[in-house]
Specification:
The structure is a homodimer. Chain A is an all-alpha fold. Chain A has nine helices and no strands. Helix content of chain A is 66%, strand content 0%. Chain A binds a DNA duplex through helix 2.
Chain lengths: 203, 203
DNA sequence: GATGCTATCGTACATGGTACGATCGAAGCA
DNA sequence: TGCTTCGATCGTACCATGTACGATAGCATC
């Protein structure tokens, strides 16, 4: 038993059955130990959630430090998006918890460094960080939510067709088209955000 | 008793004590009814959460339809960000639930319409939507998380100074500066995203 | 062998979602 | 007016879950 082993098993288990159905008892059973043994390594469930979020951040592969700043930003944002998609059940944790563990810090630092090297001052750098993280994780979450909703309720549709008129034509159009490839959507969005950042730096 | 009244009281109560401490029993007590009465109007707690998220979307003030598309996008994104900040405890719901209720649809439609009027095709329009929503709500969530973390653990700081060296200089710089005004940060980020979108449309 | 420490775990409690069936008041009808 | 019906309300109870508490067991040190 070690904190490391607990966190890894927790990620796997939560991934399998969803965050809501993830219980301490089941985790302990999966580890083959008593429920209370977990509490010797982690103070409570919140701390475990935090550790799980940190664990995902720690999976990011860092870019070469001498690459151009926008390549590094693109690389890290993509890594984050892919990591989030690998762990759909845990995306809410990525959105909600701060990354405070030592495991998460290198990736955070690399992202901040890339933004800083673009010429932004520290406050702007922090903003870039949040924009990119929000974009990557938010997009992943939107995809997860759609997948879950479609599994539970069937394809999305507009509720009332009771009035003959089309009250929400844009929404209908968005729902009607063929589903966009998540990869294409991500790349489009990433390019939009990066080009906005480039314009800001004058590059 | 009506669904409307329940949802409004739920929003207020959750706002007061946080989503985690929000219970059906307390909500019923707040309403002056028995716990089980709530279940005559809503099937379960998940549905209530969904309704709460929709309720927030319904608060958005729609822009004038004849304004330029980027003004409309800016207006709606700002509205969403402000609504999220008014309800910090509920931001996780905004990030997690889809907006499926009739209350939420007008704002969704207006956002999609503004993006479509920029010249994007339906798939790109949907992507714009998710980028902007992720940005606005993600930024609000980051602010909330920071506030909560500082209330509970004191100001953010780097844990180990045990090695003399500075392992994470960028992170240190980001934490060191004076706290940025949330409004300024939002406007900076919004301008970045919008300028990225304008470049895409050739405008 | 005694002692103290560390990791494990069995038991028990409090909390919270919600199923079930009883109740109750009003509206319609003879 | 008395009876019926139906929708809304609610009391009770059940079950799941997080976790406090204290017991235990293995092990190292003296």
């Amino acid at each position: 038993m070690s904190r490391q082993r607990i966190v890894e098993a927790a990620v796997e288990l939560a991934e399998g059955r969803g965050l809501e159905r993830f219980t301490m008892r089941d985790l302990a059973a999966e580890l083959g130990v008593g429920t209370m043994s977990i509490y010797h390594h982690l103070p409570d469930k919140r701390a475990l959630h935090q550790a799980m979020a940190d664990h995902i951040w720690s999976q990011l592969v860092l870019p070469a430090p001498d690459a151009p700043w926008d390549r590094r930003l693109a690389h890290l944002t993509t890594q984050l998006w892919e990591a989030a998609r690998r762990h759909p059940a845990l995306v809410p944790l990525l959105l909600t918890r701060r990354f405070t563990g030592p495991e998460a810090l290198p990736a955070v630092e690399a992202l901040l460094a890339a933004a800083a090297d673009a010429g932004f001052d520290p406050p702007e750098t922090a903003t870039c960080f949040r924009i990119l993280v929000g974009f990557a994780v938010g997009l992943a979450q939107a995809e997860v939510a759609r997948t879950v909703a479609e599994r539970e309720h069937g394809p999305a549709r507009l509720g009332g067709g009771d009035d003959g008129g089309d009250a929400f034509p844009r929404l209908r159009a968005a729902l009607a088209g063929p589903p966009v490839s998540p990869e294409a959507e991500f790349e489009f969005g990433l390019e939009v955000v990066l080009s906005g950042l480039r314009r800001r730096t004058g590059t």
